[in-house]
TrEMBL record, chain A:
Protein name: ATP synthase mitochondrial F1 complex assembly factor 2
GO BP annotations, alphabetical order: mitochondrial proton-transporting ATP synthase complex assembly
Task of the protein: Plays a role in the assembly of the F1 component of the mitochondrial ATP synthase (ATPase).
Primary location recorded for the protein, binned into one broad class: mitochondrion
PANTHER family, alphabetized: ATP SYNTHASE MITOCHONDRIAL F1 COMPLEX ASSEMBLY FACTOR 2 (PTHR21013:SF10), ATP SYNTHASE MITOCHONDRIAL F1 COMPLEX ASSEMBLY FACTOR 2/ATP12 PROTEIN, MITOCHONDRIAL PRECURSOR (PTHR21013)
Subcellular location: Mitochondrion inner membrane
InterPro entries: ATP12_ATP_synth-F1-assembly, ATP12_ATP_synth-F1-assembly_N, ATP12_ortho_dom_sf
GO annotation, cellular component aspect: mitochondrial inner membrane
Homology family: Belongs to the ATP12 family.
Binding partners and assembly: Interacts with ATP5F1B; involved in the assembly of the F1 component of the mitochondrial ATP synthase (ATPase). Interacts with FMC1.
TrEMBL record, chain B:
One Gene Ontology term, aspect cellular component: mitochondrion
InterPro entries xrefs: FMC1_homologue (IPR037667)
Entry's family note: Belongs to the FMC1 family.
Top-level taxonomic group: Eukaryota
Function recorded in the entry: Plays a role in the assembly/stability of the mitochondrial membrane ATP synthase (F(1)F(0) ATP synthase or Complex V).
Record-given protein name: Protein FMC1 homolog
Ranges where the record places region Disordered: 79-107
Comp. bias intervals (Basic and acidic residues): 79-88
Length: 281, 107
């Protein structure tokens, strides 16, 4: 009987029932009230370098992951971006806007406890139901739009990775040859564990391996990738109208998550070197 | 390569987003300084198609997209989804009723 137990100690205690005129549940608080948000409890956010990498300091406290591990990231630019996320929180901390922090926590804790091969297999499995390979036959305007927008991306992927993908209008989806999947598996194996978490995240958001790879290879921008992923929705919006609180809300959230995932992958897999050219006399 | 436009425009919009996110002391924030330093470091090259420059521009455009979408998403959430549950008084007021006052609390 979960509602009979008192709420966890870290939630702020609600005022006693006599002070409010609300129906009071057995555990002493309103039914269905969302948990109180954490207030911003720190003044300054700064970065420091430890042995494992870069750490985030909230005032003098070191940031930890949900599983209480020390929060260390390998890249300074990523640490700066995470610090900016924490610094941009005003009165309350809104965890649902802190996508980079969430990605770092996932990479550090690995809550689903998958190893590298399992992550790669999960990512390549999306190819069987890839969005850009699933075509409709009617309405003809949408079929035409899909052909014009998605065919170039599929062609680019086929040329870049030297594979056969194709597209299909049947309900079973495209028939992807095993050699294609093996090519992608070996390509993804060249990324490190952190970057792979990011790649798998982007694929899950865009529902397409091909769009994610063209985004990671910098062939298209984030806005374009999100547009291509939501092509049918955009078509219906243009036909029937836009509903701001649903369509724009989902669009902004998808853009934010995809941008965070892409940035995460690039920052975790780059190695920047500055080469100074000698002046030629 | 992605169609990105002018790097200067991306930089200017990115700095604007950082200023909106940071508040008062945006110029001292590590993100602001890091972005400016990175753009300055990659500015002068004698090669027309500098790969590092394009990589940096793509990263900057991605970060700009992230900051902008998070800000817009939060604004939409505040406007449409942030209100929470109505109190029983408000619910009664929706149909024109008032809650009864019972001395000594509810039985």
């Amino acid at each position: 009987l979960w509602w009979a137990r008192s709420p966890p100690a870290w939630l702020p205690r609600p005022p006693p029932a006599a002070a409010r005129n609300c129906p009071v549940g057995p555990c002493g608080r309103r039914a269905y009230a969302p948990p109180a948000e954490r207030k911003r409890f720190y003044q300054n956010v700064s970065i420091s370098q430890g042995e494992g990498g870069f750490e985030i300091n909230l005032d003098h406290r070191k940031l930890k992951t949900p599983q209480a591990k020390l929060f260390t990231v390998p890249s300074e630019a990523l640490a700066i971006a995470v610090a900016t996320e924490w610094d941009s929180q005003r009165d309350t901390i809104k965890f649902y806007t802190m996508h980079l922090t969430t990605l770092c926590n996932t990479a550090l804790d690995n809550p689903t406890q998958r190893n590298k091969m399992q992550l790669i297999r999960a990512a390549v499995k999306f190819l069987d139901t890839d969005t850009v390979c699933y075509r409709v036959e009617e309405p003809p305007a949408l079929a035409e739009l899909q052909k014009n927008e998605w065919d170039p991306v599929v062609t680019w992927a086929e040329k870049r990775y030297n594979v056969t993908i194709g597209s299909s209008t049947s309900i079973l989806g495209p028939n992807i040859p095993a050699s294609t999947k093996e090519t992608f598996v070996s390509h993804l194996a060249s990324y490190n564990m952190w970057a792979l978490q990011g790649i798998e995240f982007v694929i899950t958001q865009l529902k397409s391996l091909i769009l994610s790879m063209s985004l990671i290879d910098r062939h298209i921008t984030v806005e374009k990738a999100v547009l291509l992923s939501r092509l049918e929705e955009e078509y219906q919006i243009r036909r029937w109208g836009n509903v701001e609180w649903a369509h724009d809300y989902d669009l902004c959230e998808l853009r934010a998550r995809t941008a965070a995932g892409t940035l995460f992958v690039h920052l975790c897999s780059e190695s920047s070197t500055v080469k100074h050219k000698l002046l030629q006399d | 390569m992605a169609a990105l436009g002018a790097p200067l425009r991306t930089l200017r919009e990115l700095l604007r987003e950082l200023r909106r996110a940071a508040g008062r002391s945006y110029r001292d924030s590590p993100a602001y300084r890091h972005v400016l330093a990175a753009f300055r470091a990659h500015r002068v090259t004698s090669e027309k198609l500098c790969r590092a420059q394009q990589e940096l521009h793509f990263q900057a455009a991605t970060y700009l997209c992230l900051l902008r979408s998070v800000r817009e998403h939060e604004a939409l959430h505040r406007e449409y989804h942030g209100r929470g549950e109505r109190s029983p008084q408000e619910v009664a007021g929706l149909v024109g009723f008032r809650l009864p006052q019972q001395p000594g609390g509810k039985g």
